[in-house]
Amino acid sequence: MRYITTPIYYVNDVPHLGHAYTTIIADFLARLYRLRGHKTLLVTGTDEHGQKIEQAASARNFTPKEYADKISKEFKNLWDKLDINYDIYARTTDERHIKTVQAMFLKMWQKGDIYKGEYEGYYCVSCETFFTKTQLKENECCADCGKKTSIVKEESYFFKLSKYQDKILKWYEEKEPILPKNKTNELINFVKEGLKDLSITRTSFDWGIKIPKELKDEKHIIYVWLDALFTYVSVLDYLEKGQNYDFWPAHLHLVGKDILKFHAIFWPAFLMSVDMPLPRYIGAHGWWTREGEKMSKSKGNVIKPMDIVNAYGLDSFRYFLLREVPFGNDGDFSEAIFINRNNAELCNELGNLLNRIIGMSAKYSNNMLESKDIKQHFEKELKQSKDFIDNALKFCESLQLNRYLEELFKALAVANLSISKYEPWNLVKNGDLDKAKALISLCANILAKVALLLSPVMPSSMQKLSKALNYELNTQNYKKLIEEDELLNFNLSPCENLFNKIEKPLLEPVNLEVKKEEKKIKIDEFSKIEIKIATVLECENIEGSEKLLKFKLDLGDGDIRQILSGIAKFYKANELVGKQVCVLSNLKKAKIFGHESDGMILSAKSGDKLVLLSPNDLVKNGSLVG
Ligand code: MSP
């Protein structure tokens, strides 16, 4: 049994490339498992409670439920358009979910894992996460997303997360549940630093699930992460031991790296508290950027999945997402690379191979291909392609999906290369028709196997291909072709091109262009900016901050200032004394980390580093830059 989940997506905004990515991976795996004959369940859905949704709805003049209905529908529509074959679509506003969450909360309470207290600290609404002051970035900003947090002081129920610290560590060690494995160390360090008990109810707003009535404390609603995580269980009708009950424990929770902590620390602790078995794997993927930049609404560069699909077709899109980035790493959506993969891999190596096989079988064997002579002539090629396919399947188990596809394309290369090497047209010319036919048949068999394994990635084009070769993409053929290494005979028919060559980029870079225009300023706006050359008189580290250096600077004409700059990771304080730097000198004063800062020292971003800007020659302090 294989139960796979996507994250339960927030309905604060419409779905984007990141959501599509996780869901397409999940759909690929579920389709592959079904093909291999596993009983499989794929669950996705929407996370509809919490302050973030309440705020998003009210900003648009909707009630939270109206807004959730609207966005949840958009997610569902997108999944239909992306050919996501999910089994259940869960919503956290569903009645059965609400009941399950309350029942689980009660269980945790009865177990003695929940106690009442008062929470005082910081809260990031965007991440729906609590922080202590020391965990925050400068200016009380969220350690994860960088947005401003708010101070929360209210009565709250707490979950004894600390009690589960050692058990969680043991789970990591014994089961190695985190994929890719190299993400485990970060978690171990985090847990070892000490887990604090978790505030799991709020009272200052009410868009959420009320705590169980048995606690007689109506004003508390349940923390949205506890609520959302239990979707994975409520959707199975777990409490009633419904028909999907047996799917627990999940085989794989797929998540983005930003929400790994919730799934790999909070979730197992909650499950242990209610005496439920833990999921087998948690797979965390990286983030997508667009042409090297983080996607965000304010930059106007968010990719809408359907824009790509409408321009280039669904299967190319699904293929690109899985092929381009090693699972776990961040990846960049570059249109040029997308086009290159479509043309070189999908059109040439895959689509064209089918065309060649169809063409040659029509010419030399009346559309009928028999497998009987393949082994005699092409044992080596058969073995090579089998090895690549076996490798592919191994990579898939550890979610190395790009390598899965890479190996499958290596198997296709065996077919393509053997055509150029043995030249069937010359074999025929030289009177060796049987060998020519065996060669075409070898290629058709390799293609049939690969297409079977590509069908979970590109369902509709592989369906077309299977029609052309006249075989079924089903479990029976999976067993025959992949597990038992049988060879098939084919009766071919013509087929339209599987993929089309893309001649030029089709995506409108409108948003980026608009944004670039918006970023442009008029000369009179620039003249407001005052950048001056200054010499560093003193420089020291700031206690408690890894990032900040405190400078005393001479800006000429007796203008001596204190400025803080976040470059401590890149420069030693004492190296900088005597150096000249550029200072934005008419910036409003600010307090950073309790110290006054009067201006900004300019530096250039180079990858993850910051490099100070200095004049090329010594100039007078106070000289204007411009
Ligand atoms: N509601 C929670 C999940 C609860 S699961 C019990 C949530 N929702 S979300 O809608 O904000 O995020 C869903 C997923 O989108 C996360 O896995 C996140 O990593 C992913 N992504 C958001 N932006 C992304 C990219 N730019 N690239 C790839 N994935 C990204 O968190």
UniProtKB/TrEMBL annotation:
Zn(2+) binds at residues 124, 127, 142, 145. It is an enzyme of class 6 (ligase). Binds 1 zinc ion per subunit. It catalyses: tRNA(Met) + L-methionine + ATP = L-methionyl-tRNA(Met) + AMP + diphosphate. Residues 525-626 form the TRNA-binding domain. The keyword Iron-sulfur does not apply. It is found in: Cytoplasm. GO terms for cellular component: cytoplasm. Its EC number is 6.1.1.10. Keywords: Aminoacyl-tRNA synthetase, ATP-binding, Cytoplasm, Ligase, Metal-binding, Nucleotide-binding, Protein biosynthesis, RNA-binding, tRNA-binding, Zinc. One of its GO terms (biological process) is methionyl-tRNA aminoacylation. Belongs to the class-I aminoacyl-tRNA synthetase family. MetG type 2A subfamily. Is required not only for elongation of protein synthesis but also for the initiation of all mRNA translation through initiator tRNA(fMet) aminoacylation. This is Methionine--tRNA ligase.
